[in-house]
Write a structure and sequence with these properties.
single chain, globular, about 30% helix, about 375 residues, alpha/beta, FAD-binding oxidoreductase, nine-stranded mixed β-sheet
């Protein structure tokens, strides 16, 4: 069976990798970008580029439901598959297995966390509430001004999104997937609820199954099929900083987060210690929506995030900025994220898009869902 995947961000790449495990599929992936997301870009037209790679599963306040199952499945998939990809490709994919530490402030309530801990225990996941004395001991570089506690989630992870995507693509290629970059979809040929051919700037591509995983690009493509899945662009800005010394204690280097600001340790590079800090959440204005364009990066919102990071960790203040970037996250309009389903009116079109701020985390479960639809025709409520 000929399967065409449109889009090669983390979602499209993971779908291709998962489908490559299914016998009998001839898989092609196209993307309008020249190559998978690079490490040194300053502007990304995808959610993968905007991502900090946080896998926030156990520390989510959700207690049940599809989204929580997808989060757990994502963490478990990466724990299982990344060693396989590394062994197969030789590419080192940075992954922080020291968890996430989320600060709680005077206006936060701890009762919900106290109730969540035993629920997580039944789900074979761990959460801990740390008092300020333990925070001071384990994270002496953090400011505890107005902090009342910390929530530590040792089972959550952080992964480098660009290198992860490159590794997944390389492993999928070894499984026979054909990746074609700098290929832009220009139209489709359809008949009787079937897309039979996709037109591109490089020529037509036949397909028996079409998977649309193109992020924001899914909106115009579904519009051309007269079944629009509306996605809105939400911009995020982040920064990479460099310090001559390591923050905190060497034995404890998780992701630190507070008031939705994240400090991500990257390790030592050329004698300096590097960190990601971010990210803003910038919604399009009415004018942006009317013009069908993404919001422009707001320097004031970025300054607010940076000041919040310095408030959390004053030792970041003298850091040198070595990269400042922005990326676009696709957010479904009027429905939960993400969208994983057969496109209404079509027997052979699957939409897998609109992951908003959790594309990296939810990509594995999305890929499993797409594989399930291809093999079984439908996506049951408990596919994961």
């Amino acid at each position: 069976m000929q399967v065409l995947v449109v889009g090669c961000g983390i979602v499209g790449a993971t779908i291709a990798y998962e489908l490559s495990q299914v016998p009998g599929l001839d898989i092609t992936v196209v993307d309008r970008q020249a190559a998978p997301a690079a490490n040194n870009q300053t502007t990304y037209q995808s959610g993968t580029g905007a991502a900090l790679g946080l896998l926030m599963a156990s520390i989510s306040k959700k207690t049940k439901g599809r989204n929580l199952r997808m989060r757990f499945a994502g963490v478990d998939w990466y724990d299982r598959v990344i060693p396989e990809i590394t062994a197969r490709t030789g590419l080192h994919i940075p992954i922080n297995r020291q968890g996430l530490l989320m600060l709680q402030f005077e206006d936060d309530r701890l009762e919900g966390w106290e109730k969540l801990i035993p629920i997580r225990q039944t789900q074979n996941r761990r959460l801990e509430i740390w008092d300020c004395a333990k925070l001071q001991q384990q994270a002496p570089h953090l400011s505890l001004n107005k902090v009342v506690a910390g929530i530590y989630s040792p089972d959550d992870r952080q992964i480098h999104p660009a290198i992860l995507t490159q590794g997944i693509v390389k492993a999928a290629q070894q499984h026979g997937v054909d990746f074609q970059f700098s290929v832009e979809v220009t139209g489709v040929t359809q008949t009787s609820g079937q897309v039979t051919q996709v037109m591109t700037n490089q020529g037509p591509i036949d397909c028996e199954q079409l998977v649309i995983a193109a992020g924001l690009g899914a909106f115009p493509l579904t519009q051309s099929l007269n079944e629009p899945i509306e996605l809105r662009p939400v911009l995020g800005q982040a920064v990479q900083l460099q310090l001559p010394q390591q923050l905190g204690i060497p034995e404890f280097q998780p992701v630190f987060t507070g008031r939705d600001i994240h400090i991500v340790p990257l390790g030592q590079v050329d004698g300096h210690w590097e960190y990601w800090v971010g990210a803003t959440v910038e919604f399009p204005s009415d004018d942006d929506i009317a013009a069908a364009q993404a919001p422009t990066a707001d320097p004031e919102m970025f300054a607010t995030v940076m000041q919040g990071a310095f408030d959390l960790c004053p030792e970041l203040d003298p850091a040198e900025t070595i990269r400042h970037w922005s990326g676009i996250r696709p957010r479904p309009q009027g429905r939960p994220a993400p969208v994983i389903e057969r496109l209404p009116g079509y027997d052979n079109v699957i939409i897998a898009a609109g992951h908003y701020r959790n594309g990296v985390l939810l990509a594995p479960a999305t890929a499993i869902g797409v594989s399930t639809i291809l093999r079984n025709g439908t996506l049951p409520e408990t596919w994961i």
